[in-house]
Each structure stands twice: as C-alpha cells, then as structure tokens.
DNA sequence: ATACACGCCTGCTGGC
DNA sequence: TGCCAGCAGGCGTGTA
C-alpha cells in the first residue's frame, strides 16, 4: 500500500536511472495498466517510444517523468504497483508485469523498468503538462529546474500538495479543517486537501496526537489542527527516513509498507495488541470499506464543545 | 461545495 | 479437502 514515503523511495531510486534516458521500446503486456491513459491524445506506445525522459517528479502518491516539453509519463502505484529498475537481461517472467519500458541511458547503458501490479489499481499514462495553479514548483524532484518545474500532468492538477512540500499551505489546510464537519480521518485521506496520506499513516498520525478518526474536523481547535499536521509530517518523514536506509539506490525493489515500515507502526494493523503508550488493547473498526485502528483509551471521541459564538 | 456509496481487481486466509 | 466470504484499499465517478 504505497503512500507518500514509499512512492518517494521509488521516485528517488528511479531518478538517476531515467533522467536523460531515451525510451527505446515499450511492451504493453496488459492494457488495463493504461486505464488512465487518454487514447484520444495518441496511443501510449507511440507517444513514449523514442522520448527522452527529463526527470522523475512526485506529488503525493503520483509520480511522473516529463518527456519532451509538454508531456509526461504519469504513474500511480495504486494498491500493489511497483516500478522495478532492472538490467535488460533480467528474466521477464513476472506474473503480474503489466508494462515494460526499455531504456537507453547515455551513462548507464541499457536498463529496463517493469511496471508490476498484482491488483491492477495502478496505472501508467501519457498526459499533457499544464501550469500549476499556484505557479510554484509542481512537486518533489530534488532540484529539477527548467520548463518542467512549474508544470504538472493535467490528471494530477487537482491533487493537493503533500505536507512535506515546501509550498504546502498550512493556513489553507487549517482553514479547511475548521470548515469540515466530516471526521478528521476522512479529511486526512482527501487527496484534494492534503496528498500522500493513506490509511496507514492516517491511523499513525491520529494515534500520535490521540485523536479519534471520527472526531469532527471542525471541532478541533487551531492548536490541535497544528499538532495533527505536525504529526502527519513527523510520521511521513520518519517512514521516509527508514525507507531510505534499506533502499538500494541502483535497483529499486519496493514491496509496499509491509516490507519497510511495519516494525515501527504504533497503530495500524495492531488490533488486539497493547497500545504502545498505555497498554490498552487496540481496536479495529470498519471505516469507509476499510479498517481503522486506534487505542480506545487514548483516542476517544470527544463531544464537540458547543460553540461559544456562532 | 461537500458527502458518500460504489466499482475496479487479485491473492491470501479463516471458517465450515 | 474444497469452497466461499472477507479482507487488503486508493481513486474516479456518479448521485444527492
């Protein structure tokens, strides 16, 4: 279940291998991996073949590789997607390989990127680049400059910045919290408001600040809102740091959260296990067709105070 | 604008 | 042993 830290690990691993590389050939093994590609703009294979990749950029859980001036290969890993960097002679027997990009890099020679995705919620696409709404650098790419810095794939433009993005607008986020009657977890998962947070890190951040996920966002004080945002940053940042330690810079092999960060989770997946803070058995509750994990003692629902003034 | 149900998809696990 | 329900769940879409 790749969330921001996992996707960033993938991006960082791909960047040196793809930047400056030319796509020599493409194999589309399963067309379902192109569900987000708009065929009206041309077919994926012809748009990609021969293109030079200029960078690897990420916003939230989306990553993209600009090709030419105004297009990019956009990727989303969905639930189970992987972008595996391989040598050209690597066996091609992956059961769930969906798309293969054969690259030719001026320094690294021939490389292959295999998009492997068991559950097929992920996808690749070619999309046009449009200017960002705020005119700032679109996403994280470790110092990419040039014409691509202020552009974003059209299908990603509605995705909010992630909380680790220097251009993330804290005040706008806190204002949105104050306006939303929904449970605070639901708000954290709204990628149009803040991106990169999924079910795992939402549970972790809520545990860290002792909040119940169903607590109405609008019932939080400004101070609590700030604490929550800080906790989200902390959780994402720590996971990113851990991912960075076990990551081979040349050949990416990301298997999702279970592989990297599971040992440091305080809430997610810990139903029945003691709360690391108070020892009370954690509980799992159904939420939006998935699961929420919390400590029933530390993370209680608090009735909103009656507003002092309307 | 906001809220929320739904469909997409495969593999694994647990109960009977 | 085999079968099926349940679970993993992000995101776009459709409806109110």
From TrEMBL:
Keyword Hydrolase annotated: yes
Co-factor(s): Zn(2+)
CDD domains, A to Z: EcFpg-like_N
SUPFAM superfamilies per UniProt: Glucocorticoid receptor-like (DNA-binding domain), N-terminal domain of MutM-like DNA repair proteins, S13-like H2TH domain
Reaction catalyzed: Hydrolysis of DNA containing ring-opened 7-methylguanine residues, releasing 2,6-diamino-4-hydroxy-5-(N-methyl)formamidopyrimidine; 2'-deoxyribonucleotide-(2'-deoxyribose 5'-phosphate)-2'-deoxyribonucleotide-DNA = a 3'-end 2'-deoxyribonucleotide-(2,3-dehydro-2,3-deoxyribose 5'-phosphate)-DNA + a 5'-end 5'-phospho-2'-deoxyribonucleoside-DNA + H(+)
GO molecular function (one): class I DNA-(apurinic or apyrimidinic site) endonuclease activity
Assigned EC number: 3.2.2.23, 4.2.99.18
SMART domains according to UniProt: Fapy_DNA_glyco, H2TH
Active site (UniProt): 2 (schiff-base intermediate with dna), 3 (proton donor), 61 (proton donor), 290 (proton donor)
Key words of the record: DNA damage, DNA repair, DNA-binding, Glycosidase, Hydrolase, Lyase, Metal-binding, Multifunctional enzyme, Zinc, Zinc-finger
Pfam families found in the cross-reference section: Fapy_DNA_glyco (PF01149), H2TH (PF06831), zf-FPG_IleRS (PF06827)
Sites where the protein binds DNA: 96, 119, 180
Residue intervals of the FPG-type domain: 266-300
Coiled coil: none
Residue ranges annotated for the Formamidopyrimidine-DNA glycosylase catalytic domain, each copy included: 2-122
Gene Ontology biological-process annotations: base-excision repair; response to oxidative stress
Cofactor comment: Binds 1 zinc ion per subunit.
Assembly behavior: Monomer.
Matches recorded under PANTHER family: FORMAMIDOPYRIMIDINE-DNA GLYCOSYLASE
Similarity-based family: Belongs to the FPG family.
Protein name, UniProt field: Formamidopyrimidine-DNA glycosylase
Organism annotation: Agromyces ramosus
Gene name as annotated: mutM
